[in-house]
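Section handout 9: paired folding examples.
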Amino acid sequence: MQILLQRASNSRNNAIRKRTPPFSDKGHMYRMAPFGILVLLFAAMVSSPAVRAETETPAISTITSQTDCQAEPKATKEPDELFASINVRGRAKNLAGQPVVGATIFLVSTIAINQRLGETKTDADGQYEFLDVKLPVKQFKEIRAGAFQVYGEANGYGFAWHGRRSYSSEPRPKSEPLEEEESGFYADDPIVMDLTFRDRAALMGVVTDEKGLPLPNVKIRLSALDYLDTKGHEIHQNYREFWAIQSTGYSTTLTGADGRFEFSGMPSQTVAYVIVEASGFADQTFFAAVTDKPITENKYQSNASEMFSNGRRIRTPIWETRKVRAGPLNIRLEATERYVINVVNDIDGTLVQGVQVRANSGDGQTGTHASDTTNETGRAILALPRGTFRLSAAPPRDTDFVAAYSQFEARGDLIKEPVEMRLKLGCVLILEVVNGANGSPVPGLSIYCDVDGKPGRKVTVQSTTTWADNPVTNAKGELRAVVLPGSRNYEISSARLPGGLRADPKSIKQLIKCESGKTIRVRFEVR
C-alpha cells in the first residue's frame, strides 16, 4: 500500500514546503501494506518533504505497485488509548562489524512531532533493547498505526540511524511476508533495528551576501539525511533516510559573526538536505555531501518498481541522480525585492483568497524559494532576488479549481506591475466501484491513474491537484476527484480486493477524457 505522508503543523509545514513544492507527482511513496491507508493522519510525520520535484501533475506520490488496503485491523486497545505497546531491539556495530559498546540509543515517534520515547545503552556485545514502549498511534476510520525511528550516539563515531518504520497492531497478513518487508511491522512481529556507526565527520561552511560580506545569525537546518552509497540499504528513501534528525542536536545551527557555521558529529559518507534561512533574504535549499571527496552529483535509490510473481513481490530499485555540494560550503545570499502576485478566477476575473503562491528556482527541490498565501484582496507578496522563477498557485481544497503555473523573471525593476495568475476549473470525476454481481458498493479502495508525460508511471488519484489526501472509495463506493484536463487511464487494483472479489478485466482500466468544467462519472466493476 502506498501512502504519502503530508504536512500538518505550521512550523513543520514551513520546513517541508521549503524542500517540497506543492502539487508534485514525483514523491516519496509509502508501502505500509493494509494499514498504509493512514494518509492524512500521518500528516506531520515527516521532517522533510515527501515530494522530490515539481511538475504540473497532482501532488501525489508515485506508485509502482498497485496494492489496495482492505484488511480491517482488530483493535487491541480500548478506543480511548491512542498508543500501542512495542518492544524494539537491535545491535550496534561499526563498519568493520565490531560491536559498539556503551552507545546511547534513542527511540523516537515520528507521528506529528519527533517525540523521544526511550533511551538506553548498548551492552558489551553492542546489543540494546526497549521493552513495553508506549508508541503513539493515529486512527483513520478503523485503522490504527504509528511510526518510529531509532538512532544512536557513540564516542568517536558520527551518529547512526535506522530507517523509519511503521507499526500496526493487527496481525500480519499472509500476503505480506516479513522477509519482504522494509516499511513496517505488525503485531507479534519481532522488531529488530540494527545500527551501523560510521566515522565522525563535520559539515561546515560560510554564508555571505552578494558583496561577499559575512552574514551572522543565519539559520542553517538539516531536514533529512541519507547515505551517499544507498546500495545495501532500504530501497525506498522514505524508509531509509533519517527523518528524526530534528529530535537531535545536529539539525540546526547559526552562523557566527564571521558568517561561519559547522555541524560536528556527523556520520561520514552521507548527504544532507540543507535549508538556509536569513532575514531579508529568500530561503535557499540544496543537498550537501559529508565527504572529503570532490563530488558534484550523487546517484541514489529513490524508489522501486514492483511486480507480483507466484504470490511474491519482486522489487527493482529505481535510480536517480541529484546534484550535491561538497564542503566546505560557500553559500551566497542575494538581496530581495517584493513582488505582488494577483490570483484571479478565470471564469469572471474576481480575485481569489486563500491561494498558496510559491516561487521556485532551480529544480524546485533545490534553489531559491519564497511563498505566501493570497489575502482577502487576492494578493500574495513574494520577496525574491533577481532571477528566473517558476510560480505555482495552489487553490483552496474546497474548490474545483486546479493548480496554476507560470514563469516569472524577477528583474528588480523600480516599477513592478502586479503579476496575474488565473485559476481554471478542473474536471470533476466521480469514480465508482461496485460488485458487478449484485450492484453493491465497494468501499475502501484506492484508484490509480497515469502520470501525464511519463509512460508506465502511475499515481494514486487525489481529491485535488494541490494537496495529497490519498482518498479511498466511500460507503457508496465512490471517490470524488478534481483533476487536470487531459486523457489518461484510470484503474483499480487487482492485487487485493475484499471478500475474494476480482476485478473485471473489461472494467479494471478505463481511458477517460477529462475536460475542464465537466463532471464525469466512471464505473468500475468487480466480481
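Moving on to protein 2 of 2.
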Amino acid sequence: MKKKAFSLLVLILLISILATSLIACITYEPINSSSSSSEQSSSDLTPDDSSSDDSSSDDSSSDDSSSDDSSSSGGDINPDDDPVVDDLFNDGTYLYEFTQRIFTGHASAGLGDAEWALDGEYDDDVGYWGYTGAKGQQFGSAVYAYRDMTLTSSNFDLVSKVVVYTSGAKNTKATLSVTVGGVRIGESVALTATNAKYVFTSEQMLSGDVVLTYTQLKEHSSVAIYVKSISVTCGFIDETPESSDIPTDEEIDVNLETYSYTFERKTFSANGTAQLGGLNWTLSGEYVGDGYWSYDGTKGQQFGSKNCPYNAMSLVSEQINNVTEISINTSGANDIGATLSVYVGETKVGESLEITNEATEYTFKLNGYLSGAVKFEYSVSKGKAIYIKSITVKSHAGKATSEEDIHNLLALGVDYITLQNDIVVDSLVVVGNKFTLDLAGHRIDATEDRDGDESTYGLFAKGGAIVTITGNGTIYGGAGTNWNIALRASGDGSVINVLNGTFYSGPNKGDEGENGNSTMFVRDASIINIYGGFFYTEASYNNVYFVFNVAAESFVTSTINVYGGTFVNANPLDRGIINIVGREFLGEGLTIKTTVVGNDKHYTVVEK
C-alpha cells in the first residue's frame, strides 16, 4: 500500500512540473498582437507566401528615421511585467525590433537584453549601414554590398524557434539560413524586396550561438539587406498561432524613373532639337546633298537615304541622372555599313556594334550608373538610310510626391530623387543615406514638431548622411518652436552640400526660447558646404540673425563652408556673431559684396 501511495505522489509531482513549464512558456510569448495571420515553418515558406519577389515594392509602414541622436539601443519589445529570465532566455521568448540604426560597422551591440555581433565581407572595403522605418536596420547598399553577412548571439539556451522579419532591396539575390549551436534549423529561404516573416523551427531544443547567415547569390545583383526584427523562442512551444504588430506587407509605388519613346511618325525633318516624350533630343551629323528624313511603320524614323545618306550621325539627349540601362531599336537599309556606339556623358557604354537591315533592339547595361547626356553615335562606312524605332533609358533615380516617397526610395538605395510637387513634412530626417535631392523648383515646408523636442527641420541629415541639394527650390524650416531650422547636419560626419535654392526659417515661439531660430545648424563632426543659394531667417534673436549656427562644443569638428550664395543680415566674415565667435566661413580667393535691399543687408559671395 505504501508503494502505491508513493508512486501516486511521484505521478502528481511530475504532472505539476509539466503544467508549470507550459504556463511559463505561454507567459513569455511576445505581446504586441494585432495581426491574425498564423505562422508557417521555414521549410514550407517561399517568397510567394509573404511578398512579391524582385519588384520595386516595399512595405509601406510609416518611417521612424526621424528619431534624434540618443543613446537608446532601440525597441526592446519584451513586456515589462514579464521580464526575460536572466540572460539565458530559457522558458521564454526574446523579441527585438530595430527602431533606429544600431550597427555602423562590424562590432557587437546590445539589442534589447541580448548582445549580437555583426560580421561579414562587403564590397570596396568601405561598407554602408543605414536605417529606414519601413524595413529596419540596413546592411550594405547597391554600391557597398555584402557578399556574406552574419548576426551572432550566444546568450540563448533551449532554443526551439527563430523568427526573422527581413528583406533586401530591389533585385535582391540573397538567402538566409539559421543555426543554433552549429545545427541548422529549417531550410534556407530566398529574400524578397518586400519585408517578409520567416519562421525557423527545431524538433529539439538547442543551446549555443544563434547565427543568422545571409549569402548574396549573384555577384552583380548584390544589394542592401534589411532586418526589421528578430525573435527567439526558448523552452516549450505554445501551439497557439503567434501574431505580431509589425506592419503587414503592402506594395508601394516607388516611381523609379524610366524614359521610353517610340517613333510613330516622322519627327525630325532636319538636324536640330525635338522633344521625344518629355526629353529634348538633338540630332546632328554630316549628310550628302540636301539630306532626307522620313518614317517607316516597321522601322521608325528614317535618317538619310541611298542618294542622301548621313556620313556620320548622332542623337543626344538632355541630362539624365543615374542611368543604369539603355536600349535602342535601330536598323539600316539593305547593305548598310554603320557602327553604333552609346555614351553617357563622355563615358562609352558597352562595345560598338554593326547594325543590320532588320529592326533589332540592342541593350547596353552599365556596371553601376552614370549621369549625363545619352548619346547614340553612328559611324557610317557605306551610306544608306538609318532607322530608329524606339529608345528606352532606365535609371536608378526616383520621383517623389511626398515625404513617404522619399523614404521609400532611400530604402531601395536610390541616390537621386526629384521632387514632383511642393510637399509638407513633419521634419524631413534622413539617417545614413547618400543621395542628391533635386527640388526641381518645388518647396519643402516643415510644419510639425516630429520628435517632441520643440523643433522643426526642413532637412535634417544625421548618422553619416551625405545630401546634395539642387534644383533651385525652397526649403522652409518652420516657425513657432524653439528650433526652426531649414538645414541641420549632425552626428557621424554628416554633410549637406547646397548647390542652389532658397533656405529660410520663421520666428521662434518667443523670448523664453534659448536657442533662437537658425537657418543652418551643424554639430558633432558635421559640415554644410554652400556653393550657391539664398539664405535668410525671418526674425533675429538678441539682434542677431542666425543664418549660420555652429554648436559651441563642436567648433573643432564642425563647420559651415561658404563658396557662394547670398546671405541676408549675416556676413560670413563677421567674427562677432554669437555662437560662431572667431569662426570665418568664407573660402579662399573669395570676398563679400554688400548691397542694401530695403531694411536688410545682402552679403553675396564673389571672387576677389
